[in-house]
Amino acid sequence: MSVASLNRETAFQARSLFRSLLRYSGQFSNYNFREYARRKTRDSFREHQNTTEERRVQELIQEGLQSLRLLKRQTIISQFYQLDKLVVEGQKTGKETGDHGGIVRQKDTGWD
Amino acid sequence: MTSAVSTAWRQASAFSTRLSAYSRAPRVLATGLRGARSYVSETKVGQAQVNIETAIKEEQKSFMNQSHMAPQDTKLPGSGTSGDAAMSPSAGILKQATVMDQGTRPIYLDMQATTPLDPRVLDTMLPYLTGIYGNPHSRTHAYGWESEKGVEEARGHIAKLIGADPKEIIFTSGATESNNMSLKGVARFFGRSGKKNHIITTQTEHKCVLDSCRHLQDEGFEVTYLPVQSNGLIRMSDLEAAMRPETCIVSVMAVNNEIGVIQPLEEIGRLCRSKKVFFHTDGAQAVGKIPLDVNKLNIDLMSISSHKIYGPKGVGACFVRRRPRVRLDPLITGGGQERGLRSGTLAPHLAVGFGEACRIAAQDMEYDTKHINRLSKRLSEGLLAMEHTTLNGDPEHHYPGCVNISFAYVEGESLLMALNDIALSSGSACTSASLEPSYVLRALGSSDESAHSSIRFGIGRFTSDEEIDYVLKAVQARVSFLRELSPLWELVQEGIDLNTIEWSQH
């Protein structure tokens, strides 16, 4: 019983860690880092999805928490120095439709 | 008294008119003139300003109530502008605007020139750029000790990546300095006795190795430049034949920077060890990307660069074997840091970043290799599916992150110009300023035209699938466009062999 409840708690912790990692990954202003962070998060969790040994799971969660702290710091830094978007990003063209006007971009970032 | 009252009145009336001009906030008019202050509404920022958004919304609401039509569905008679554009000019402008969600920054596909700094590396570097500023060679205080600890840890990570001892790693300013140090150092040290004055290298080496050799030639050394086969690999029999009793060092690069072929290091190492010749390899493009073990491969000296493995620029390392000891003349002399081989204060932040980059490379090598292999396969298959394209270099002994392809009947430089939304190169960054065909491709025996029309695609850890798809589409479109322009392409389409044509001289 106690083991099962512990497992449930760990599973909850792991899921919440996964979600926060993904959320912070998306905050990199650099396209390549953003994509890499998302891919790496998904693949790392997938790689270890069948890990059952308690000790190892805790180790992995600690590792994840460390990455989360790193992501928090680095995404903030990346937002300070924003450059223009890459040609592969966005890809929305044509006239604005709908009533939000949200996809018009202001181009004033980057060093010339 | 009267004057005081009249000023109060004037102030109050002026304020209330201002209010009525800007907002519909309930007006509190002075009902009497005595005790002036209490009759005037409080002065707050919110009451002196109009919130445009709410004002527009309120206006739209009242419009809806009156006409039972949504403002964006109505058109003003005459002008044809929509209803909500007339109500809020900003919304109208947005309606007219063309969406510009496309970025303008080119895709980076030149990972052989340099790589972006990994955020994880930056994270370890930042403390050394802010708080930990001690000189790592200061032994008398804690500032020095903490810097030294970071540097030594980094040295450990680098050594672990190549299977060496931390004491065998010498920090330098980059792979160019390491190459210079190894070649000139060993040659000068052993050349002093006058017996060993022969160096062997290959024709496809990086410029810094070739140039060091040329300088040594001026100093009286003899240099053999080994030719390569058409696949970019050297022939072992050539190397063995070139070796003489007076040969002191052999320098062959591990992974070529332009075509990505991996030389048979193990065999070269074994041969050099058996002949008691030092073996130097330029591992700038190889370390951290393919597994390398200096003991297994019998490498005596190796150059490593930090900025090719997602580390900071401006730092590199040279592996100098201790057992059997490699002795060399230092290029830079001074305070005797780094075993006296490379004096000068270390840059702790760069060294630490380099170390972290090596640690990540070792940890993620399998994962990154899988990713790069997949993308490289996709890219090369897509590009080679076009007609008259060839892959340069050996397809087997090949680092997948470097794809060098020749597009026949297209001028390489004009293709690079046409592909201005992709950062590419036709060869190494050092030679990208000149329009000369690449000397590496010439050494493979490819014709001038083929060398001119080749382009190098570099794939790395941060390259994404969408980027590769974009590149494939862009290259296919631009190559066929440029070929359509070319009269040579027309002749080829008609089935005329270009070699049979006798061009008239003008």
From TrEMBL, chain A:
Transmembrane segments: none annotated. Pfam families: Complex1_LYR. One of its GO terms (biological process) is iron-sulfur cluster assembly. Residues 93-112 are annotated as: Disordered. Residues 13-68 form the Complex 1 LYR protein domain. InterPro entries: Complex1_LYR_dom, Complex1_LYR_LYRM4, ISC_assembly_LYR. GO terms for cellular component: L-cysteine desulfurase complex; mitochondrion. Belongs to the complex I LYR family. This is Complex 1 LYR protein domain-containing protein.
UniProtKB/TrEMBL annotation, chain B:
Residues 107-471 form the Aminotransferase class V domain. Residues 66-86 are annotated as: Disordered. It is an enzyme of class 2 (transferase). Keywords: Iron, Iron-sulfur, Metal-binding, Pyridoxal phosphate, Transferase. GO terms for molecular function: cysteine desulfurase activity; iron-sulfur cluster binding; metal ion binding; pyridoxal phosphate binding. It holds the Pfam family Aminotran_5. Its EC number is 2.8.1.7. The keyword Iron-sulfur applies. InterPro entries: Aminotrans_V_dom (IPR000192), Aminotrans_V_PyrdxlP_BS (IPR020578), Cys_deSase_IscS (IPR010240), PyrdxlP-dep_Trfase (IPR015424), PyrdxlP-dep_Trfase_major (IPR015421), PyrdxlP-dep_Trfase_small (IPR015422). It catalyses: (sulfur carrier)-H + L-cysteine = (sulfur carrier)-SH + L-alanine. Transmembrane segments: none annotated. Its cofactor is pyridoxal 5'-phosphate. Belongs to the class-V pyridoxal-phosphate-dependent aminotransferase family. NifS/IscS subfamily. Catalyzes the removal of elemental sulfur from cysteine to produce alanine. It supplies the inorganic sulfur for iron-sulfur (Fe-S) clusters. Plays a role in both tRNA-processing and mitochondrial metabolism. Involved in the 2-thio-modification of both 5-carboxymethylaminomethyl-2-thiouridine in mitochondrial tRNAs and 5-methoxycarbonylmethyl-2-thiouridine (mcm5s2U) in cytoplasmic tRNAs. This is cysteine desulfurase. The lineage of its organism: Eukaryota, Fungi, Dikarya, Ascomycota, Pezizomycotina.
